Amino acid sequence: MNRKELDPQSSASAAFGEHLRRTRDERGWTQDDLAEHTGYSGTHISAVETDRKPPTLRFANRVDKAFGTGEKFERMCRSVRNAALLEGFPEFVGHEMRAAEIRLFELGIIPGLLQTAGYAAAITMGAVRRGAITEQQAEERLALLADRQAAIARTPTPLIYAVLDESCIRRRVGGAGVMAAQLDQLAAFAELPNTVFQVAPYDLGERRAFDLPVTLVILPDRTHVAYSESAQQGRLERDIDFVQPLLTAYHQLQAEALSQAASVAMVQDALKGNSP
Question: pTM here?
Fold first, then answer.
């Protein structure tokens, strides 16, 4: 039988697949044996072992239970998913999922927490076509985004303040249908009892407080965390001496941005102008 050999040094997903196969072989199990213990098909297990399909946390958890390996495969799976992310972001996501308050500012694209599935897919596939990420990394990003969106729907729900540069709603992503659904989603987001939605219009000019996206999080113990990023680098900050000026600037931005009612009206105007 010809078996595809993986180089575990080539990627985190290859290391996962190689370790899964080796652990299975050590127990004398076939792929179908492992399938029976995990509820996944032998074909699925083969795809993970040969790095044709990325592992999910659910899959890794079932493998750990089948092999009695604690959280070993789950930890490896998290490494696979984090490999597609900027430095600092995986740690930030852990804080975001526990946040009592979240403050977002974004340029050019709708923030991930507010994205529809269609919009998120269009953004990630655009990165794949440019060669910036692989299809597997795109799947990992989308899976993590789904986890993040599910986390903010928890009880109690966090307070979410979102200020979007006007470019976010004017730039069409994924075609007219995808963009229309995304704009509808923004209007619905503004109606939630735990949200405040504003647009920073183009004519704000030099009064706009930020030139890069930023997210500010307040944890249940009132600890403050800030995350900002450029195209190639992410930066996580917990030092209050660094975070406090960002929080002040955010409050200034909110004061300068459109009211929520005016912001929703701008979204509705953009929706009308989104026709093919």
Answer: 0.69
